[in-house]
Structures are given as C-alpha cells and as structure tokens.
Amino acid sequence: MTLRKGDVLLVDGNSRFSVAISYLTQSTWSHAARCVGGLPDPSGQLSLQLLEADVILSLHTVPVSKYSGFHTRICRPVGLNPQEIDAVVAFSMARLGHQYDMKNVIDLVRYLIRTPPLP
Fold first, then answer.
1. With the C-alpha atoms ordered 51, 53, 57, 59, is the resulting torsion angle positive or negative?
2. Neighbouring-strand partners of residue 75
C-alpha cells in the first residue's frame, strides 16, 4: 500500500459541504484526513485507518476504504523521523471526539464574502 502512517490524504469530496468548501477556497481538495496506521476494525482485524474531522461526527477514525472511489492525493511529511511521525499521530489521536472547528469555516466565509472568489 502506498499510504503510510503520518501521511495526509487530500480528498475531492462530493457532498454539498465539500462543494462549498472547494468553491470558497478555489481548491480541488475539500477534505483532509491523517493516516494513523493500523487499528483494529469491528471484527478485530488490523486495518489502515484515517483520522478525520466531520461536522456531525466530530474527530473520528475511518477505514481508508471509505475514500476508495474518490479523487485523492497523498501528502507525505518530509524531514520527519519515525519518532516524530509517531508523536504527530499520537497528538492527533489524543483529540478523538473533539468538535469540528466551525469558527475557522465561518472566518473563511466572512473573509471571502468581502472579496467573492471568481469562478
């Protein structure tokens, strides 16, 4: 598998919220998730998991297979040793269950309303 622990997976989402984010940011990518390595799935098997933030579900893990049919891009950290990557993943995982940060979304919309993006 190409995806490694610590990588960030950029996703071209297909929800209305994703389309709005792509339009407002003028980016192909509307969503990002961090690969946290192998975690047990409901059956007890280890599977590669992503940590993602969701407006409704908060910060949670999902299997990589969730994005198998999406247009994605892998961003790999450069210059970090394995211990540093483990520290970043541990820091991220310690925030499981935290609420989605809507303040940043609102600030982005307020900033862009003054200068609407050009299609």
1. positive
2. 8
The answer on pLDDT for 75 being more than 90 is yes
Structure tokens at 10: 């950029």
Q: Is 39 helix (H, G, I), strand (E, B) or coil?
A: strand
CA triple 65-60-78, angle to 5 deg: 70
48 in Cβ contact with 34 (< 8 Å) = no
Indicate the pTM of the whole model: 0.75
39-72 residue pLDDT tens: 776 777 778 899 988 777 788 899 998 888 899 9
- Which segment of 33-42, 59-68, 88-97 scores lowest on mean pLDDT? 33-42
Measure the CA–CA gap between 22 and 28, rounded to whole angstroms.
6
Give the span between the Cα atoms of 13 and 25, in whole angstroms: 13
Here the tokens at position 94 are 């310690």
